[in-house]
């Protein structure tokens, strides 16, 4: 049986980055994923929170990553996705799905809300029937947040979705985004945008368009179109499933394959063989057959409780593949829905090389590396560093293969 | 399907697994284009909750699902979305809740029986003219008739159907050619046999009926079951001897692996474990050091389209691994989604335009890749993907087995 250099389990941000990093280094790698990870939730935003403060926190995933290593991960990332913008330790504003502003780390450039700060005239494009988008509320939030500018709403209808409109059926942002990325969609958009620019010819200097559900950063046709226009366009983040997140997922998956990696879809890894602190093989059920896969090393990037990598039952809580020992806080929840929740700290404790540890602090498996949301001692919601942890630890794991 | 009571528990568990992320619907190629289709989340796990309470969806809306399985490949929680949709459709049809016009039934009869497509042109032409007006179908028909002329059906049967004796001395494998290979592209079916024979196998090909996938897609659930039971009966003696079953069409393979075990009857519990995608099988041989190598080098760059029904099999892309064993040959994974045909879905009058629209990103990618000379040919295992891609992009599309024929010096 062939022995892969590395097998990555999990196709979220952490797993994909690990896979790409290893494949770039010429390793023969396979990535096994049950399904799409949490990228569909994220609008492609990669936050680092307050990196140095988090680094100082004992056992936080960042405590295993030096600032140099983090910077290296970021520069690798920007090589991989040149359309990302951001600067280290300096947040940039982005728009929430409701038109509020929040600081963010690295984002696809069309999401950066920086242009709004100098806007004199903001036109909010309101594609008819766009799911979970509330133009009135959004516009009033924009007006509050950018009092120097006049905010207007510009409705947008497209023949392509005429049937949706007449049925009163809402349209997923990703469906609009896929249409904009097509030749016809881009042509339609060109005329529409030129029209607005023409109408507001006098305002050219301070004119900014806010356009939900566009996902321009990933699509060459749209990128070219926006470059040719003399006006800034800002995309807000959007309620899931986010077209930008889905595009990022597809972009990374394609990169991984182009580098020679193999992507095994619809594959839920169920078990691992463990021999004296090493794992020689893992297995999954493939329609009545057990598919055994051997590798020199493995990356565990199965997304924690939310991603399915940690299973919580009425009485049990365990990591399902290697049965890695888990850190489980004594108290599971605390008061205050939006406050820190202890259960979020659940995960695998690791050493500086991301090996899973036993409760006595010894290495549990010498050829397994843990990354992303599987790691213990952090809370993506209050630390605001979900993407940053996945990126840096995924990158690290990819260099260990 | 059998096992109703445990099935209910299983279904409820799967329903609980759904985290309502809507990623399936965002990726569903049909929901993207057709507003009348509620999408996998709504038609699958959401509606199933109501179905468990005895409240049913309009089966016409469910019939819009092309059964391409993209939703299942996307779902992070392994919800068996298409099984839920298909089962609801099956119930609606069998209970007669969705009576159809005669014309529609005739069409389903014809399209559902890919086996008959080979003789469609003459016998059933008047009935299916409205279907045949579509170009994609004409391409298929041309192929069917063309191949019929060069390799007439009786010939084909003589070659494959009668090869059922077991010679215990050599290694044996049962080949399930599938309708497309059997009736539309018999030369490819023969190539598969040659490659297997080249690797020391004697290849058995009992006279199978259609696997049933097109029948299911056309709501002919009882006929699909009858076909499955018939094929299983033919397979039982081989399955019991532990002889592997190999199929070269991913839709056939998936149905043998995923659907057949549900039908019960003899062989049902053995079929999934003994069935292999052709390249999954060859890869096993390679891993065991049993695959003949000595491939002739090639300087070609080919673009590969992974069929949806292969992606659903949880085996990765063994053909890409194997092609990379051929010195000099480069393979690029197109990774551009569903071709839009999905069995016989895109052949249907009302779905033709939809299918073409679904396949657009893929066709665009192929056209621009060919123009820029990023690659010179397109390969895919699935016969109907093959037709649709050739139709949509005007590219030459081949089954990957031909690259092994060349590399072995057999073609
Ligand atoms: C709602 C939400 C919003 C977020 N917003 C932001 C944000 O604004 N900014 C930010 O920086 N971060 C954000 N994040 C966090 C960040 O995206 C995640 O921390 C990060 O993506 C986690 O990535 P991961 O790869 O570890 O896990 P996941 O993305 O969850 O991926 C897990 C993968 O493992 C697979 N898997 C699980 N079990 C198995 C198995 N047994 N076999 C095979 N495969 C398996 C899954 O199918 C999936 O592919 C958000 C996360 C969520 C959930
Ligand atoms: S099988 Fe294909 S068409 Fe049917 S719901 Fe799933 S993704 Fe949509
Ligand atoms: S992708 Fe899976 S979990 Fe998400 S909504 Fe669809 S069925 Fe539910």
Topology:
The complex is a heterodimer of chains A (401) and B (411).
Chain A: E1 3-9, H1 13-24, E2 29-32, H2 39-42, H3 51-55, H4 67-80, E3 84-85, E4 92-95, E5 101-104, E6 107-108, E7 121-127, H5 135-145, E8 150-156, H6 162-167, H7 173-181, H8 183-199, E9 207-210, H9 220-228, E10 232-234, H10 243-258, E11 262-264, E12 269-275, E13 278-286, E14 289-300, H11 304-307, E15 310-312, E16 317-319, E17 368-370, H12 380-383, H13 386-400
Parallel strand pairs in A: 1-2, 1-14, 2-11, 7-8, 7-9, 9-10, 14-17
Antiparallel strand pairs in A: 3-6, 4-5, 12-13, 13-14, 15-16
Chain B: H1 4-17, H2 23-27, H3 29-33, H4 40-52, H5 59-62, H6 70-74, H7 81-94, H8 102-112, H9 117-123, H10 125-132, H11 135-150, H12 153-160, E1 171-176, H13 178-184, H14 186-198, E2 201-204, H15 213-217, H16 221-240, E3 245-247, H17 250-259, H18 268-274, E4 275-277, H19 278-287, E5 301-304, H20 308-311, H21 318-323, E6 330-333, H22 352-371, E7 377-379, H23 383-393, E8 397-398, H24 401-407
Parallel strand pairs in B: 1-2, 1-3, 3-4, 5-6, 5-7, 7-8
The structure holds flavin-adenine dinucleotide and iron/sulfur cluster (SF4) (2 copies).
Residues 9-15, 32-35, 37-39, 41-42, 45-47, 267-269, 301-303, 306-309, 320-321, 372-373, 380, 386-387, 390 of chain A line the site of flavin-adenine dinucleotide.
């Amino acid at each position: 049986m062939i022995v892969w250099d590395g097998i990555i389990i999990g196709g979220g941000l952490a797993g994909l980055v690990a896979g790409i990093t290893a494949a770039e280094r010429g390793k023969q790698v396979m990535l096994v994923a049950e399904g799409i990870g949490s990228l569909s939730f994220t609008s492609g935003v990669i936050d680092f929170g307050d990196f140095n403060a988090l680094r100082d926190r004992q056992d936080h995933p960042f405590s295993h990553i030096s600032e140099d290593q983090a910077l290296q991960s970021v520069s690798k990332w920007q090589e991989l996705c040149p359309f990302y913008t951001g600067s280290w330790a300096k947040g940039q504003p982005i728009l929430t799905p409701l038109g509020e502003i929040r600081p963010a780390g690295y984002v696809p450039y069309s999401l950066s809300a920086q242009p709004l700060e100098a806007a004199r005239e903001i036109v909010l494009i309101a594609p008819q029937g766009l799911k979970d988008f509330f133009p009135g509320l959004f516009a009033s939030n924009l007006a509050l947040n950018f009092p120097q500018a006049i905010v207007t709403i510009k409705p947008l209808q497209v023949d392509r979705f005429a049937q949706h409109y007449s049925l009163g059926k809402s349209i997923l942002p990703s469906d609009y985004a896929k249409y904009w990325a097509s030749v016809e969609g881009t042509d339609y958009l060109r005329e529409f945008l030129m029209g607005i620019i023409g109408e507001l010819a006098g305002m050219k200097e301070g004119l900014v368009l806010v356009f939900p559900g566009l996902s321009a950063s990933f699509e060459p046709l749209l990128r070219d179109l926006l470059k040719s226009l003399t006006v800034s366009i800002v995309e807000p983040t959007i309620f899931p499933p986010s077209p930008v997140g889905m595009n990022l997922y597809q972009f990374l998956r394609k990169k991984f394959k182009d580098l020679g990696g193999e992507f095994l879809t619809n594959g839920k890894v169920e078990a691992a063989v463990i021999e004296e602190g090493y794992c020689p093989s893992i297995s999954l059920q493939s329609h009545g057959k057990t598919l055994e896969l051997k590798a020199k090393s493995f990356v565990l990037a199965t997304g924690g409780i939310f991603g399915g990598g940690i299973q919580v039952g009425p009485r049990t809580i365990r990591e399902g593949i290697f049965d890695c020992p888990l850190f489980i806080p004594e108290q599971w929840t605390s008061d205050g829905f939006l406050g820190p929740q202890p259960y979020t700290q659940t995960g695998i404790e690791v050493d500086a090389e991301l090996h899973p540890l036993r409760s006595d602090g010894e290495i549990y498996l010498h050829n397994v590396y843990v990354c992303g949301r599987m790691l213990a001692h952090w809370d993506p919601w209050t630390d605001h560093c979900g993407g940053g942890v996945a990126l840096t630890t995924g990158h690290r794991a990819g260099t260990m293969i | 399907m059998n096992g109703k009571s445990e099935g209910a528990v299983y279904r409820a568990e799967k329903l609980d697994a759904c985290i309502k992320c809507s990623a399936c619907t965002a990726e569903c190629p049909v929901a993207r284009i057709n507003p009348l289709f509620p999408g996998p989340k709504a038609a699958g796990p959401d509606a199933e909750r109501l179905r468990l309470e005895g409240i049913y969806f309009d089966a016409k809306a469910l019939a819009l699902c092309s059964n391409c399985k993209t939703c299942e490949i996307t779902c992070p929680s392994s919800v068996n979305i298409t099984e839920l949709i298909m089962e609801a459709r099956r119930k609606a049809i069998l209970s007669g809740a969705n009576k159809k016009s005669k014309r529609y039934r005739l069409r389903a009869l014809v399209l559902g029986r890919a086996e008959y497509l080979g003789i469609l042109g003459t016998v059933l032409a008047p009935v299916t003219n409205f279907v045949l007006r579509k170009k994609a179908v004409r391409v298929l028909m041309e192929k069917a008739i063309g191949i019929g002329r060069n390799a007439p059906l009786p010939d084909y049967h003589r070659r494959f159907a009668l090869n059922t004796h077991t010679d215990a001395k050599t290694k044996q494998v049962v080949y399930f050619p599938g309708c497309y290979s059997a009736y539309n592209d018999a030369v490819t079916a023969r190539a598969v046999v040659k490659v297997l024979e080249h690797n020391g196998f004697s290849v058995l090909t009992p006279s199978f009926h259609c696997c049933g996938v097109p029948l299911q897609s056309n709501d002919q659930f009882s006929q699909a079951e009858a076909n499955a039971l018939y094929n299983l009966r033919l397979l039982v003696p081989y399955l019991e001897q532990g002889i592997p079953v190999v199929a070269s069409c991913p839709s056939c393979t998936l149905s043998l692996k995923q659907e057949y075990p549900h039908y019960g009857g003899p062989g049902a519990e053995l079929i999934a474990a003994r069935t292999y995608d052709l390249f999954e099988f060859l890869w096993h041989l390679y891993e065991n050091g049993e695959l003949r190598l000595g491939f002739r080098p090639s300087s070609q760059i080919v673009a590969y389209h992974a069929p949806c029904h292969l992606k659903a099999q949880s085996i990765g892309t063994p053909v890409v691994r194997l092609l990379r064993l051929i010195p000099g040959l480069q393979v690029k994974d197109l990774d551009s989604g569903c071709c839009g045909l999905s069995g016989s879905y895109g052949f249907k009058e009302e779905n033709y335009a939809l299918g073409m629209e679904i396949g657009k990103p893929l066709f665009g990618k192929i056209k621009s890749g060919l123009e820029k000379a990023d690659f010179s040919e397109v390969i895919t295992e699935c016969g109907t993907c093959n037709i649709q891609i050739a139709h949509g992009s005007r590219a030459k599309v081949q089954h990957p087995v031909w690259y092994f024929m060349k590399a072995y010096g057999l073609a």
